[in-house]
Input
Amino acid sequence: MSKKKKKKGILKYIIVIILLLFVIAFFSSLIIIPKLIKIDIGEKSEKIKFNQEYKIKEGKATLLGNKINIKHKGKINEKKLGKNKIKYTASFLIYKKNTTKIVDVIDEEKPQITLNGNEEITIYLNEEYKDSGATASDEYDGDLTSKIQTTGEVDTKTIGKYEITYTVKDSSNNESQIKRTVIVKENDNRNIIYLTFDDGPNDTYTPKVLDLLKKYDAKATFFVTGYGNDEYIKREYDEGHTVALHTFTHNYSIYSSIDTYFDDLNKVEDRVFRITGEHSKIIRFPGGSSNTVSKKYNIGIMTTLTKMVEEKGYQYYDWNISSGDAGNTTDPNVVYQNVISGIGPDKLNIVLLHDRTSHTYEALEPILQWGKSNGYRFMAITSSTKPVHHGVNN
Ligand SMILES: [Zn+2]
Output
């Protein structure tokens, strides 16, 4: 081998080694240089409140103390719960380093819960209690009223203090709660008006009367007959009024004998039972227990009937405030005056009305307004309501 050839061979090796060193240096730089890049993006994970405006922070990057370029990519949706990613990329020539920031949009806000109606409610023993519920809304979930859980019960047959709790959770499990106290107390008849409507149902006026009672959240007692449409008796019952018994025909000839009276009473009782599923035991004699018309048919029959009905488990109610709507007047103002002039806060107020005339209907709303604004409650007669008895004249 010549010297020249040998030299050439060594040169080749040197070149190959140099190239190799370059390659090694290049690849090493790809690993080492990014490691020398320092990135500052503040907190790597952040929590923000739903709907809270968030401005993405600019990052800072240096390589051996010199500022280099840094960019970020990604968006924050503050209107949606969950994690958002922001990717930061620092670069110098061909060298890059990445890091990410997580921004978690969370809902820590409790739902708002509000009672419908008062925080404390007093009802009387055996009075119907209808809970008016609560409403709830949440900043994130919106209306949560349908998600409210109600616990607690009111035993309207037992005097006591009851608590009803309304609880609602939003989709992030934030919980809110509100309570209501319901007091069941003995009915002392203070500030109560018992409106009673006789001779119905009447297809024209009964539905109108029911609408008004509903509007004023008033309960009443209907002494019904065999007339009118079943659906109005059903409504009276469903809407929390007392369906009581007058008689089926309301013909005074029912006073001809004990049997004719009870046949007629049984007939209306059967009607009410067929419609409501309940046997009503609250009754009113046509003409009241003090009527004198029964004398024409059978002297002494009222004395017998008033005893007999009680023996059979009925309670009969007369009235102590007469509206005069069944004959004395057709003027709604007079009906109104007759009623309100008879009412007092410390007495039992049982008002006689008839749901079959326009003047009664027209007087009803002013009566309801007057009662409400004077602190009275309109209640239905129940078996625990003290009866008013006129006293028998026959
Ligand atoms: Zn009558």
